[in-house]
Amino acid sequence: MTRWIDLGIDLALKLIHKGKVRDLYRVGSPDEKRLLMVASDRVSAFDVVMAEEIRDKGKVLTAMSEFWFELLGDRFPNHVVTTRPTSIELGEDLPADFQGRAMLVKEAQMLPIECIVRGFLAGSALKEYQASQTVHGQRLPAGLTGGMKFPEPIFTPSTKAESGHDVNITFDQAAAIVGTDVAVKVRDMSLGIYEIGAQRAKQAGVILADTKFEFGFIDGEIAICDEVLTPDSSRMWEASELLAGGEPTAYDKQPLRDWLESTGWNKMPPPPSLPSAVRESLRNRYIAVYERISGREFLG
Ligand SMILES: Nc1ncnc2c1ncn2[C@@H]1O[C@H](COP(=O)(O)OP(=O)(O)OP(=O)(O)O)[C@@H](O)[C@H]1O
Ligand SMILES: [Mg+2]
């Protein structure tokens, strides 16, 4: 979707970046450093964007990030200017199809690493552990299995690949990329946010198994950017089922990944087309986990 960009006229919103899920529009002139971040209904898995969309997904992710940004409040600086941008701030009315999926944010100098916190062994960390008994290069005891809780949550950064897959790295490698002071700061912030998120999720009977944050510099200060503690950026499990020793229901992208793997797809575009049952199931899980954790009703 191209909006204004090709018109060569100085309109208020200009598309400057199309990510896998979010579109970024510049608001006003570059020195105002304001972006409108619009979450689409696109879904990606294994770094490939699916052809079909998940209805309302962008709205659920926006509502969930909004909830967390409010809950985290001033404890951690973040990029939000307002989650309800007005025409005065935007210089034009918010387009109808952006309603509920747009946030006005401060433009940040993004750090070129992804800040992952893992409370439980899963995903790429589990694959790495099974291959080499390490997690992000750190040696762990033998005999761990998927779904096990780490004694303490661990900070496990990765590269932020411009294209292709992110690569798991050690803390020292992250420090070599962003500098030790910054690496220490984002590690401590990540662990702090995870702790608050995991505790809140636990009250709702949900395990926040792991999550990924993106930070950036805004006016010389490190701030949480992008989305925060959503089912797109996290693994969220049904706590009671994990405690009972079973495979927990996942309120995240896992059912989509499982379905894609079951098709034998080689993870290269084009992806297989998603049956409506897979799409509806994902939509329902995202809404359910949002409503449970936030205590708010999803209004669409
Ligand atoms: N405040 C901000 N200032 C500048 N960039 C931001 C800000 N918040 C988020 N971003 C960037 O906006 C993009 C959001 O798009 P999305 O989440 O769809 O990206 P992605 O597909 O995960 O990654 P990529 O953008 O590399 O394709 C990310 O590149 C993210 O780093
Ligand atoms: Mg992203």
Name of the CATH homologous superfamily of the largest domain: ATP-grasp fold, B domain
Largest sheet: 7 strands, antiparallel
Q: What is the fold-level CATH name, i.e. the topology of the largest domain?
A: D-amino Acid Aminotransferase, Chain A, domain 1
Arithmetic mean of pLDDT:
95
Strand content: 25-35%
CATH class division of the largest domain: Alpha Beta
String of helices and strands: EEEEEHEHEEEHEEEEHHEEEHHH
Measured as a percent range, the helix fraction is 25-40%
CATH architectural arrangement of the largest domain:
2-Layer Sandwich
What is the total tally of β strands? 16
Which overall shape is indicated by the principal axes computed on the Cα atoms? globular
Low-confidence stretches: none
Protein architecture, described:
The protein has 300 residues and is an alpha+beta fold. The protein folds into 2 domains: 95 residues, 2-Layer Sandwich (Phosphorylase Kinase, domain 1), CATH 3.30.200.20; 157 residues, D-amino Acid Aminotransferase, Chain A, domain 1. The chain is 32% helix and 25% strand. It is built from 8 helices and 16 strands. The strands form 4 sheets. Strands 8, 9, 12, 13, 14, 15 and 16 form a 7-stranded antiparallel beta sheet that branches. Strand 10 and strand 11 form a beta hairpin. Helix 1 packs parallel to helix 8 and helix 4 crosses helix 5. The longest helix has 24 residues. It is globular, with a radius of gyration of 19 Å. The model has no long low-confidence stretch (mean pLDDT 95).
